[in-house]
């Protein structure tokens, strides 16, 4: 019995990806002395190049490394670090380490979820914001910490969030 490969149609979130980025990824994979045991390393590089790991990139890696697409997807979907959806224009990371948790990180995440109408780990419908709860960022003296893009906000209070978000709205 032969299997027929059926690709799912692309959704609205998927974009055509530049060939140059695939060339860069291919050169990286080809530069590895051996491919056995390097899938996670390759996925890190691919996410750095593309910003996320869409289906086309996962299938490219699968073919280049001669492993199944299911195995690649399994690793991508298992680790929180990997994203298979494009991030928003502005990424909001809320530290959920112990110090930040004790100082109110959960209240900050809950407020942002309600304000942005998304859950942590999701992107707003307009593609503007992505909200993430992240493990300790190593700035416990500033707890609770919110990082937006490259900017670090320390000792954040829920009452300050509207003013902070206003800086990033269109």
TrEMBL record:
Cofactor note: Binds 1 [2Fe-2S] cluster.
Keywords: 2Fe-2S, Iron, Iron-sulfur, Metal-binding
Residues that, per the record, bind [2Fe-2S] cluster: 95, 100, 136, 140
UniProt keyword annotation of Phosphoprotein present: no
Cofactor(s) needed by this chain: [2Fe-2S] cluster
UniProt record similarity statement: Belongs to the complex I 24 kDa subunit family.
Protein name, as recorded: NAD(P)H-dependent oxidoreductase subunit E
Organism: Proteinivorax hydrogeniformans
């Amino acid at each position: 019995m032969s299997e027929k490969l059926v690709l799912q149609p692309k959704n609205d979130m998927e974009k055509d990806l530049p060939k140059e980025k695939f060339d860069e990824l291919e050169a990286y994979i080809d530069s590895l002395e051996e491919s056995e045991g390097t899938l996670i390393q390759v996925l890190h590089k691919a996410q750095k190049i593309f910003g996320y790991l869409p289906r086309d990139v996962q299938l490219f890696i699968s073919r280049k490394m001669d492993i199944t697409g299911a195995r690649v997807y399994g690793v991508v979907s298992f680790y929180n670090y990997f994203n298979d959806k494009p991030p928003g224009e502005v990424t909001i990371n809320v530290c959920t380490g112990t110090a930040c948790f004790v100082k109110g990180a959960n209240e900050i995440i809950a407020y942002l979820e309600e304000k942005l109408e998304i859950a942590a780990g999701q992107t707003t419908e307009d593609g503007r914001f992505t909200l993430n709860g992240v493990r300790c960022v190593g700035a416990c003296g500033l707890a609770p910490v919110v990082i937006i893009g490259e900017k670090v906000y320390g000792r954040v209070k829920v009452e300050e969030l509207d003013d902070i978000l206003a800086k990033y709205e269109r």
